[in-house]
Write a structure and sequence with these properties.
The protein has 259 residues and is of the alpha/beta class. The protein has a single domain, classed as Rossmann fold, CATH 3.40.50.150. Helix content is 36%, strand content 24%. It has nine helices and ten strands. The chain has helices spanning 14-18, 23-35, 52-58, 71-80, 115-125, 143-155, 169-178, 201-209, 222-237, and strands spanning 42-46, 63-68, 85-88, 100-106, 126-137, 181-190, 193-194, 238-239, 242-245, 248-256. It has a seven-stranded mixed sheet, sandwiched between helices. A three-stranded antiparallel sheet has the order 7-9-8. α2 (23-35) packs parallel to α3 (52-58) and α6 (143-155) crosses α9 (222-237). The longest helix is centred in the C-terminal third of the chain and has 16 residues, at 222-237. It starts with 13 loop residues before the first helix and ends with a strand. Residues 5-9 have low confidence and may be disordered. Bound molecules: benzoic acid. Benzoic acid is lined by residues 107, 110, 137, 141-142, 164, 209, 247.
């Protein structure tokens, strides 16, 4: 596993994101179906990444804007889909001149611990009656991976801190209601996810997504830590030449109340 000397958490490698980790947006197509975008609707895609789902939403005839805080992702999205609008922005502080009929998000919200700010911000850009349709990691998401990394960090005397926000249905539904949404649908489900890259799949996943989780580990020890995590998980999560990650998803539809 490699980490460049100036690596910053969540500075995405868009080539690997669209290659080995393309399952992120491929699974997201089910969330686009749940959104059920209509021609002429104005939709905001929060955490649009490289824009594949923004484009899938636009296929319906909806007028879509993609927003992301990673410039590398936006550059890739603009180049792949020059007809769509992609803007730099923070989900906690969305600001648009015109409000939206719907806000959509796939596999992005769990990167942001401050969900009060996210929901206040999403509510502020929706029309009353507008819907918020999203999927994020739910409680227990990738817990086998996190636990195995934590065990190895502890063995080596490093600090452990959980970098992601994976809520339960009850917790997130309450938060949505606190911010003026009515929850129409919410479900937590297991979605074991086969990783690409064969034997290297778990190491590649940790390289792409695990910067914060592995932050206390010096670069010189990373390979040993990853090998120990693989040893710990192999019996249960490696079969027929592929690793499976223990994903759990929280998916919901909520409607903004009020006038
Ligand atoms: C997820 O989509 O559930 C996820 C992706 C990367 C890191 C953690 C969770």
């Amino acid at each position: 596993m490699t980490r460049s000397p100036d690596a910053q958490p969540n500075q995405w490698n868009t080539e690997t994101y669209d290659g080995s980790h393309s399952f992120v947006f491929e699974y997201g197509e089910a969330v686009v179906s749940l959104l059920d975008p209509q021609a002429g609707e104005r939709v905001l895609d929060v955490g649009c990444g490289t824009g594949h789902l923004t484009d899938a939403i636009a296929d319906s005839g909806a007028d879509v804007v993609g927003v992301d805080n990673a410039e590398a992702m936006l550059a890739e999205a603009r180049s792949a889909y020059p007809d769509h609008e992609f803007v730099h922005g923070d989900a906690r502080d969305l600001a648009f001149d015109e409000s939206f009929d719907a806000v959509f998000s796939n596999a992005a919200l769990h990167w942001i611990p401050d969900q009060d700010s996210v929901l206040e911000s999403v509510a502020s850009v929706l029309h009353p009656g507008g819907r918020f349709v999203a999927e994020l990691g739910g409680t227990g998401n990738v817990s086998a991976i996190v636990d195995a990394v934590f065990a190895e960090l502890e063995r080596r005397g490093y600090e452990r801190s959980h970098p992601w926000y994976f809520p339960s249905v009850g917790e997130y539904a309450s938060l949505l209601e606190t911010h003026g949404f009515e929850v129409r649908y919410a479900v937590l489900f297991d979605r074991p996810t086969e990783l690409d890259d064969g034997e290297d799949g778990l190491a590649a996943w940790l390289e792409m997504f695990g910067d914060s989780l592995l932050a206390p580990v010096p670069a010189s020890e990373l390979d040993d830590v990853v090998a120990a995590v693989e040893d710990e998980l192999r019996a249960e999560y490696f079969a027929d030449g592929a690793w499976t990650a223990d994903y759990r998803r929280l998916r919901f539809v909520a409607v903004k109340t009020g006038n």
